Amino acid sequence: MQKLTAQRQAILDVINRSDKHWDADEVAYALKENDTPIGIATVYRGLAALAEQGLIESIQLADKKRYERADKKHHDHLICTDCGDIEEFCKPEIEKLQDLVASEHDFTIQGHQLLLFGICIRCKGKGI
Ligand SMILES: [Zn+2]
Ligand SMILES: [Zn+2]
Q1: Among 22, 68, 118, 128, which is least packed, fewest CB within 10 Å?
Q2: pTM across the whole model
């Protein structure tokens, strides 16, 4: 694997230091806090490149991408469209059904993302 530039390494370090799902602005802010400020355009490019190399995972939301560590166990996401909160889950039954669908279509799965969009328990409570 080719060596990362210092900037990309700094971006990767930010992502790897927590379980958060980061957007580019949050990464840029964290880099500034670390005294390693990187311009937002470079952060966007760096995140895309790191995801391309499989060093981080990307999640495509309606308006933007979020990124997380690539070394977490496989999981899917519940995404609150109100507050943006992201919860993780993994249901073996769902995973198995996906394998079944793939075999029915003689299809080889190389990866998948399941995103459930809706309202989280806290935002549901706010409405009442
Ligand atoms: Zn919410
Ligand atoms: Zn996640």
Answers
A1: 128
A2: 0.86
pLDDT grade for 1, boundaries at 50, 70 and 90: low
Of the listed ligands, the closest to the CA of 66 is 2
pLDDT tens, residue by residue, 67-86: 999 999 999 999 999 999 99
Task: Please report which confidence band the pLDDT of residue 88 belongs to, taking 50, 70 and 90 as the band edges.
Answer: very high
Question: What is the extent of the structural domain holding 118?
Answer: 76-126
Burial class of residue 17, CB neighbours in 10 A (0-12, 13-18, 19+): exposed
CA of 41 from ligand 2 middle (Å) equals 24
Examine the domain organization and report whether 10 and 65 are in the same domain: yes
Assess whether 82 and 63 both reside in one domain: no
Tokens representing 118? Answer: 């809706």
When divided into structural domains, the chain yields a total of 2
Q: Which of 69, 91, 106 is the last residue of a domain?
A: 69
Ligand nearest to the CA of 121: 1
In whole angstroms, what is the distance from residue 58 CA to residue 102 CA?
23
Same domain, yes or no: 80 and 65: no
90 in Cβ contact with 74 (< 8 Å): yes
